[in-house]
Each structure stands twice: as C-alpha cells, then as structure tokens.
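Researcher: Quick test of sequence recovery. Tokens follow.
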C-alpha cells in the first residue's frame, strides 16, 4: 500500500509542487492585498465599505485560487460545478434562514442605516457596531462582550442608531419636593446648563415642568451635547445639579405615603394587648 502511495507521489511530484506553490504563495498574497486595500482606502471611504471591499477581494480571489489549484490537479471543473449546483439547491432549501440573512444584509449595506463605530440599540441589546457582514452584525458591548445579531432581525424589527447625528439631547428626569418654587428650580437648571462647558448653547436646553408626581414635582432637564461627550456630561451634570440644590436648600424627595382619614374622623384607637400567660 505504501509503495503505491510513494509511486503516485513520485509520478505527480510536479503537480503537487505547483499546487503547493499556488496555495502557499497565493493565500498570503491575498491577505496582503486585503491589508493594502484597507490602508489605501482608509481616508477615502467609510470603514464599513473598506471592510466589505477587502473581504470581497479576499473571498473572490480565494475562490479563483482554489479553482486554479483543482484544475492543475486534473479535476474536471465542469463535473465538479454540476455536482456543486445540485448540492447547492439542496442546501438552499435547508438553509432558508441563511439566505434570508444574506438578502437582508444586502439591503442593510445598500440602505446604510448605520456604520462601524455607531452605537446601536436593538431590543435589549446595545453596543458599538464592531463589524457588518453579509449574514450578521456584530456589536461590542460596553463590558467588552460580543453580540451577534442576524441581519434578518434588523430588517424585521425596529432598532435605534444612537449616534447617527453629531449632536444629541440628554433627557434627565428630576423631582423636587412640593414645597419648592417651580420658577426657582427652572432657573437653577438653566444656570447649571449654561455653566457646563459640555452643554451646547444652540439648541438651547429643554426644561419642562412635567406635572405633579406621587411624591414630587417632576421636571425634564434636556441639554444638547456633542455625541462623544455623553459619559463626561452626564456625570458632571448630575453632580452639579445635586450641588446647586444643596446650596439653594431644594429638597429632592424620596417616595412616601401619608394616611389621611378625613377632618371629622376620630383618631384611630390603639390598644395594647398583653401577651397570653404561659403555662403554670
């Protein structure tokens, strides 16, 4: 048996060497070409387009390289492609979900509702778009975890691109005690927004008296900011609002309940019941 194998290798040495050279040199060259494309287009097109172009070149080049290797090895490509076509039909019926994701991915690439680096919210998932592929979108969460979302889910369900536009509004709900002066609270919130360098002057901050809550007067405090300043602005605003409220003597209440039985109602009788006597 081993003699037959050695004999076959000896008679096909040239073919084996050529195939090894094609794969051994061609595949690294394709990876190098993908790297050059990413570097060359870095400042010309979006990162999403760069990723798709480089992957497309590598995939197409790898397919051509494999076909050249098979042809050099003496494999009849016509027969192989015919068998692949029959198998492709069978696999297509068995993988309708993958086909749906592929078509959905093409729509997402064409529509471009988000790009790499955007913050995306889809259901309970939230993270930075890490990669956009033909079958799925990968998100990197703020805890450095990877979430894979099928493209079909993004087409069928609503999602939010949090960082699509250069500026955003930060909505902060604030409650103060009922004894506080509403106009004074609005004035203090305006002063806090004006003093914070991360808050934009235009558009002006939105300060709305929302109404009477169960335990507090409720306000909506909505300053505008550059999308890259979210964390820094939120931390500084909350600290500054608390500090100013303490300086001005404005109370931030906690939920509480008061039992009121009416003006004419007599006080509730209270009786102290002695514990039962123990056994003698």
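Model:
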């Amino acid at each position: 048996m081993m003699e037959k194998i050695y004999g076959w290798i000896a008679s096909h040495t040239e073919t084996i060497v050529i195939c090894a050279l094609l794969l051994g040199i061609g595949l690294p060259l394709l990876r190098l070409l993908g790297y050059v494309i990413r570097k060359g287009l870095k400042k010309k097109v979006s990162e999403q387009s760069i990723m798709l172009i480089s992957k497309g070149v590598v995939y197409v080049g790898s397919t051509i390289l494999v076909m050249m290797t098979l042809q050099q090895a003496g494999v009849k490509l016509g027969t192989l492609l015919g068998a692949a076509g029959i198998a492709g039909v069978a696999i297509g019926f068995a993988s309708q979900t993958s086909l749906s994701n592929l078509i959905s991915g093409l729509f997402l690439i064409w529509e471009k509702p988000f790009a790499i680096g955007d913050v995306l919210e889809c259901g309970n998932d939230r993270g930075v778009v890490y990669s956009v592929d033909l079958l799925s979108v990968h998100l990197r969460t703020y805890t450095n975890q990877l979430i894979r979302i099928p493209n079909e889910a993004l087409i069928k369900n609503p999602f939010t691109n949090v960082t699509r536009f250069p500026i955003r509004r930060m909505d902060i709900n604030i409650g103060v005690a009922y004894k506080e002066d509403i106009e004074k609270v609005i004035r203090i919130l305006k002063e806090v927004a004006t003093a914070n360098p991360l808050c934009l002057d235009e558009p002006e901050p939105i300060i709305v008296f929302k109404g009477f809550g169960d335990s507090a007067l409720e306000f909506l405090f909505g300053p505008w900011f550059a999308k890259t300043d979210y964390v820094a602005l939120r931390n500084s605003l909350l600290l500054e609002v608390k500090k100013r409220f303490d300086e001005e003597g404005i109370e931030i209440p906690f939920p509480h309940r008061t039992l009121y039985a009416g003006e004419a109602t007599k006080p509730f009788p209270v009786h102290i019941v002695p514990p039962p006597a123990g056994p003698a």
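The chain has a mean pLDDT of 79.
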